[in-house]
Specification:
- The chain is an alpha+beta fold.
- The chain is built from 4 helices and 5 strands; from the N terminus they run ααββαβαββ.
- The termini are far apart.
Length: about 200
């Protein structure tokens, strides 16, 4: 009976070993499958992260575009309103006030000036300005503004580091980094300007 007991024990141990081996192999398979699934989920998460970044970038671009369109629409509306106001005004000084005020309040320009050549005067006069503290400099720049308008077919975009002396003098005299000088024409003749 002792040898039968040893045989039963050996068989039980062998069977236990086989069962443990089968369980270990299944555990390894599940671990491999889990590792494979984990790799798949990791790849899926990375793709999702990339897609999220693309969506956020596109959303920011759309927001910027929307803001730019809103700004342009507000500008067009302000121009329309300005046109309506100017159509009913015949006094140059009232028109100058409307234009300079609209340009500073609606379009965000820091400084504006409205120049006209009045009927009895042959030179430009500054009828109204907003944001310009340098009144003497403003008057001193009028000859430079007149020459610049005469030498230009349209509007002038100037800056403080412009190579043209007149443009440079306007920017320096009024302490401007950059400016836009738009002529006012009546029947083909330049009768004024908006700075």
């Amino acid at each position: 009976m002792g040898s039968e007991l040893i045989l039963v024990l050996v068989a039980t141990l062998g069977l236990s070993f086989v069962i443990l081996l089968i369980l270990w192999i299944r555990g390894q398979q599940k671990l491999y499958e889990s590792s494979k699934s984990l790799g798949y989920f990791k790849k899926l998460c990375e793709e999702l992260d990339q897609n999220t970044k693309i969506i956020v970038k596109q959303d920011l671009e759309l927001t910027r575009t929307h803001e730019a369109l809103d700004k342009r629409a507000r500008g067009l509306f302000a121009l329309h309103e300005l046109g309506n106001k100017m159509g009913s005004v015949f006094d140059e000084s009232v028109m100058a006030e409307i234009v300079t005020k609209t340009l500073t309040e609606e379009f965000g320009f820091e400084k504006t000036a409205f120049f006209m050549r009045l009927r009895e005067k042959s030179t430009l006069l500054c009828l109204r300005s907003h944001g310009i503290q340098e009144k003497e400099s403003l008057e001193e720049t009028i000859p430079c503004i007149e020459q610049s308008l005469q030498n230009s077919a349209g509007g002038i975009l100037g800056s403080a580091n412009a190579p043209q002396p007149n443009i440079h003098k306007i920017a320096a005299g009024l302490k401007l980094d950059a400016f836009l000088l738009a002529p006012i024409e009546l029947k083909g003749e330049k009768v004024g300007a908006i700075l």
